[in-house]
Design goal:
Alpha-Beta Plaits, five-stranded antiparallel sheet
Length: 244
């Protein structure tokens, strides 16, 4: 490209190199338009496309979730939930602990001779609250009992059943007293699990029960007794102690 000596040479120079100048101008304009308008718009289109795909996936998840929820038998599942709460309540619940211990004693045939479970202080000195490795909270209670070999074995069978509050035995010690009598001392953990504070987002997927969970649910339905919602009648004393 020739060097311009003065302004008078500018017009002839432009005429001479107009095709090159026009081409260069077009390239510059196209570059500016691409940087300023085209690339940002393409990025926005990409974002909208990704967002649309995400929303479509969310919508599909919601459709699948609604289908699963529609297939649930409400009354049956509520009844199952009551049974699950009976064996694994959301709090310590001394009532189900006492009824569970009573069931253990009655169905096994053992006689509980000593226990550190006391009404009114289950949340303090009488039982220790601890968290197991499975992150399930439990109340620890110590027991001593008498019974035959058969009744002691039945005791631990009932402990593993789903008939009562969920118990597990620890630190079992058996002492031979006579051919027909054994003494056993053990610690049981009565489990409880607070309800979650959040149930997850609306579009979260419902995780199906595993084969083991289904088997456990069936066992609970067969064995567990739901907690009664009826309030028992409590005898009241006289308002006038001097009346007959």
């Amino acid at each position: 490209m020739e060097k311009l000596s003065n302004t008078s040479d500018l017009l002839p120079f432009i005429k001479k190199n107009q095709s090159l100048i026009i081409s260069g101008t077009i390239i510059v304009v196209v570059f500016i338009l691409t940087v300023v308008f085209l690339i940002p718009n393409i990025q926005k289109i990409q974002e909208v496309t990704i967002s649309s795909e995400t929303k479509e996936q969310t919508l599909n998840n919601l459709r699948a979730k609604v289908t699963i929820l529609d297939s649930i038998q409400k009354e049956e599942e509520l009844f199952t939930l009551k049974k699950i709460i009976a064996i694994l309540p959301e709090e310590k619940d001394v009532f189900t602990i006492f009824t569970g211990i009573d069931t253990l004693e009655r169905e096994s045939g053992v006689v509980i001779t000593k226990s550190d479970l006391k009404v009114g202080v289950i949340s303090t000195e009488s039982a220790l609250t601890r968290s197991t490795k499975e992150d399930n909270l439990s109340v620890e209670i110590n027991f001593e009992a008498l019974g035959s070999k058969e009744s002691i074995l039945r005791l631990f069978d009932v402990l593993q059943s789903m008939k009562t509050r969920l118990f597990t035995a620890r630190r079992v010690k058996i002492e031979y007293l006579s051919p027909d009598s054994l003494s056993v001392s053990f610690t049981i953990l009565a489990y409880y699990s607070p309800f979650p504070a959040k149930l997850g987002s609306v579009d979260s997927q419902i995780v199906p029960l595993s084969e083991k969970m289904v088997s456990l649910k069936d066992a609970i339905m067969r064995e567990a007794m739901p907690v009664s919602e009826e309030v028992p009648d409590v005898p009241k004393g006289k308002t006038d102690l001097f009346s007959l």
